[in-house]
Amino acid sequence: MSIHEREDRALRLQRVAELLAEAVTPQEVLDAILTEGVRAAEARAGAIGVLSNDGESVELLAQQGYASATMEDWVRFPVSAQLPMSQVMRTGEPLFISTLTDRNELFPELSQRGQDGSSIAVLPLAVEGRVFGAMTLSFADEVEFGLERREMKIALARQASQALARSRLYAQEQALRKRMTFLAEASELLSSSLDYNLTLGQLTHLAVPGLADWCAIDMAGEDGEIVRLAVAHQDPEKVRWAYELQERYPPKPDQPHGVPQVLRSGEPEFFPEIPDEFLKAAIGDDEELRKIVDQLGLRSTICVPLTARGRTLGALTLIAAETHPKYTEADFELASELARRAAVAVDNARLYGEAEKGANAAQALAYVADGVVLLDSDRVVRHWNPAAAAITGVDGAHALGKPVDEVVPAWASLTSHVPLAQPGASRTRPVTVPLVLDGSELWVAVSGVDFGEGTVYALQDVTEEHALEKTRSDFVATASHELRTPLAAVYGAVRTLRREDIELSDEDRTTFLEMIESEALRLSHIVGQILLAGQLDADAVELSVTEFNPAEVAAGVIESASMHLPEGITLSLNADGAPSIMCDENKLRQVLVNLLDNAIKYSPDGGEVRIRLKQAGDGCLIEVSDKGLGIPSSEREKIFEKFYRLDPQQTKGVGGSGLGLYICRELVERMEGELSVDSEPGIGSRFIVALPSGG
Amino acid sequence: MLCRVNLRASGMDVLEADNGATGLELARRERPDLILLDVMMPGLDGWSVARALAADKSTKDIPIIFVTARADPADRRLGEQLGGVGFVVKPFDPVGIGELADDVLKRIERGEREQLQRGIATEHEE
To answer: Which of A99, A493, A567, A689 sees the fewest Cβ atoms within 10 Å?
Structure first.
């Protein structure tokens, strides 16, 4: 070989090296090799094949100069085949065959084809001693592969190997970066809102067309049904069509493949090439569906579960159809990662929703006046709102997480009478029960609902209502008692008078008639006082205010009392300097009559009963005093309470409705005055009415 | 007064006291066959009189019929505890009081004193 030829070869190799250095993508590298490389090698045609991922096949990446019809058969062939490229990949040794005869002898399979070339050189493509592919060069003429020629081809192959490996690495990196970018975008999208219906919908659009021709997300409904949340395709018309299809052919939960299977098992499905059986099984005998599926051109599919905390929430389906290449392991990994992130987002959104609901509920419960106590099935306190704390005197921090019987020892007896309602069942009436806590007694209305996982109780402090109710029932009991005694006398006297089987003396007869008269009056008086007390309670007493001299009213009261004065009692009036006042004259008279009656009644041993009036500031003071039994200091305020009796069993022989002083004080206060008492047991009592001038 | 007239009409001897203390004294002295005891009386009330009678050997067996306007369950239980054999709630028909006294005495004679006593607390107010 001449120096000139050598220089020429070196230049051509250099030129190829320059081109390869500039090439970035595998395609650019392949182009450079198959154009400049082939030319530099003075070959007629060239082809480049690489080992498949599984190392079982040779995949033809590109070719230049061969009849395309010839090459169609060589897109993919086994590494184990008796073919030059397969052999080179197996051995890692270059192969130089100068004649067709040699070639056909070595590789009988080629004898029937590829008659358009003469010599071939097949060179391994390897990096760091690892063969990843092979380059075939075909020559138009028979070539004698001398040492230098061989070396040149080997050098070319080495350059090609490095460029191709580098570009493939670059492509992988690019793809990885693309995936990472996609995942980053997807993550950002998923975290942009807690409305996962929205974000998952957007996610399907993000996946199309970069990751899939079709992308769908289906969720597992509460009752096991499959809910299509979103489906995306570049063509909106097709999306509409997909929804229609879903409606017409809803997925059967027991389907052996696809979303139902993934939702059922929680395991992903990956079909780089959708198996015919799969489609056949899905289509069945439906001719129309078969046409639709054919039209879709489904090629490859990935269906991955959306799994969070061990639960399958839904499934993400990617389908490669008309544009997207078949899915690879890398795509499957990407889809799995995407599904994982989507599931976490859905789970978080749901948890947040539940937490928010819980927080809202807890916040609402904090303001509810009723105590709310939630116990789990082990009777451990799970919720204890502030009202429950106020009622029981045990704060939430102390109660939470502890068995309720430890928190409130009386709990069992408190709730033992409370019937538990079932959720949704009609409400049971709260039961009012006493709750004894550290010596104090509360009345609590309790109702409860058993919701399976525990019990929720509502507590209401009804101590006041209960006391009121007791007062009311006491009022009824006392009032009826007050009425029964005179009634008994009247009824008994009449019944006795009407007896025909006995002869009554005139004296007895007169006594019975007097009894009827006085007891009937007493009855009427008590009824009047009960009615008046009722009106005062209802604030229905009207005042008729006029200007008058209270001394005249007091004189009138004394006068009528003196008509039937018990023995030993003397009455006196001192009204010097009493001013005129603006007031209700009748009501004042009623008060004075009552006070005077009391003074007389509680002076069983007689003595002076006096009314004294005097000016006090602008107003008037009226004192009614006696020298009777007196009132112990502990009782002095209680005597103004309704039905309070100094002497409940009337052992001192004093009767009454128990309403007199209550009515007096209420009336005086309505006239903007004050009624107070001053007394010493055994010495006597003094009731003081202080009335403003009212002018 | 009402009871006196009507009991006498039933042929009974009637002793009357207008307060607890006098009544107690009378009961100790006369040891009547039956006491009609008003709970609400001036001086010693009916409950106190019943207690005093029960504490005294000579009077503890005298049957007592309480007469009262108050008839809540607590009063009835107290009446039972104090050894009452009857509980008459006001207002009542005094015409029938003689018959009631007669009936109570006959039942006690038949040995039904305990039933009468229990009947006080379980009887419903009419």
So the answer is: A567
| Nearest chain A alpha carbon to B42 | A651
Q: Who among B1, B9, B44 is closest to A499 (CB)? A: B9
CA A174 to chain centre: 44
Among candidate residues A648, A532, A521, the one with its CA nearest the CA of residue A590: A532
Q: Are A377 and A462 in contact (CB under 8 A)?
A: no
- The 3-state DSSP class for residue A354 equals helix
Q: Measuring CA to CA, which residue among A333, A318, A317 is closest to residue A218?
A: A317
A652 near B42, Cβ under 8 Å?
Answer: yes
Find out whether A233 and A322 touch, Cβ atoms under 8 Å: no
Q: Which helix (H) or strand (E) holds A220?
A: strand A214-220
One-character DSSP codes across A111-156 = TTS-TT-SEEEEEEEEETTEEEEEEEEEESS-----HHHHHHHHHH
Partner A contacted by B72 (CB < 8 A): yes
Report, as an integer, the average pLDDT of A45-73. Answer: 84
- Put simply, whether B74 touches A (Cβ < 8 Å) is no
Asked if A502 lies within 8 A of B5 by C-beta distance, the reply is: yes
Helices and strands: H and E segment counts in chain A: 22, 24
pLDDT tens profile A532-563: 888 888 888 888 999 999 999 999 999 999 98
Chain A environment of B41 (Cβ under 8 Å): 649-651
ipTM of the complex: 0.85
Write out chain A residues lying below 8 Å of B91, CB-based.
Answer: 484, 487-488, 490-492
Nearest to B5 among A477, A484, A504 (CB): A504
Interchain contact, A488 vs B90, CB within 8 Å: yes
Query: Is the CB of B88 inside 8 Å of chain A's CB atoms?
Result: no
Task: Please tell me whether residue A675 adopts helix, strand or coil conformation.
Answer: strand
Is the pTM above the cut of 0.80? no
Tell me, what's the pLDDT at A114? 60
State the Cα–Cα distance between residues A469 and A473, nearest whole angstrom: 6
> Which of A473, A500, A651 to mutate to test binding with chain B, by most B CBs within 10 Å of its CB?
A651
Is some CB atom of chain A closer than 8 A to the CB atom of B15? no
Per residue in A80-101, pLDDT (tens digit) is 988 889 999 999 999 999 888 8
Q: What CA–CA distance (Å, rounded) separates A389 from A683? A: 51
Give me the DSSP letters along A574-613: E-TTPPPEEEEHHHHHHHHHHHHHHHHHT-TT-EEEEEEE
DSSP B94-108: GGGHHHHHHHHHHHH
For residue A652, what pLDDT band results from cuts at 50, 70 and 90? very low
Residues A484, B41: C-beta atoms closer than 8 Å: no
Q: A193-206 burial, b for 16+ CB within 10 Å, e for fewer?
A: ebebeebbbbbbeb
What average pLDDT does the segment A604-613 reach? 90
- Tens digit of each residue's pLDDT (9 = 90 or more) over A416-439: 778 888 777 766 778 887 777 766
Put simply, whether B92 touches A (Cβ < 8 Å) is yes
